[in-house]
Amino acid sequence: MKKEYWLERWRQEEIGFHQSEINPYLSRYWPELQVAPGKQVFVPLCGKNRDMIWLREQNLSVLGVELSPLAVEAFFKENGYSPRHIMGEKFDQWDADGIRLLCGDFFDLKKDHLAQVDAVYDRASLVALPPETRDAYTDHLLSILPPAIRILLVTFDYPQAEMSGPPFAVSTVEVEALYGKHTDIRLLAKFDVLTENPRFQQRGISRLQESILLLTTRTA
Predict the structure, then answer these.
(1) What residue numbers does the annotated binding site for S-adenosyl-L-methionine cover?
(2) What does the entry list as the binding residues for S-adenosyl-L-methionine (predicted)?
(3) DSSP H/E element including 42
(4) Which domains, and CATH codes, for the chain?
């Protein structure tokens, strides 16, 4: 899946993957991460995710990365911010009220970008990636994070043959395969959510589960 695919989705406003409401799992399970006020949370492939507003309201600073400048502009405009915009070689940087969004390619991120990060919130990035991209994504993420970081991960799982993503099906078994060598993984909850998602039923999905997982990176 090429960069142009996502840029075009935003240009055409084909963003059915965007949730206008704050994810209910975030407030319910965020305390499991034990992140102190004032710390920084990283939100990869953030789009215009309103969960970042909730995180900021918890007195956390937020760092997001997003490929589409339209998504970044929409986030600040729709939430009433007037951001400072700094152009850069790899990333344009947008800042307002403790929220910093880097507009550019996730794979161009370096350790320096994430040096102050204390936790990661991934509701929409891993499930946005096709299977052939996930190894590279998780390898890169783990290579640039500081040690002993906790990740709150939300995944979808459904019979992949019944629908082409995104969002793609990511099972807890696959999460173990992707992250297990370098993180300790705890399944916090798993829910059957097909009846709550009529658009997936309309696409012929017979089973839909959401899993909420806590991953903790090892120090060695």
Answers:
(1) 10, 45, 66, 123
(2) 10, 45, 66, 123
(3) strand 40-43
(4) 3-12+22-217 (3.40.50.150)
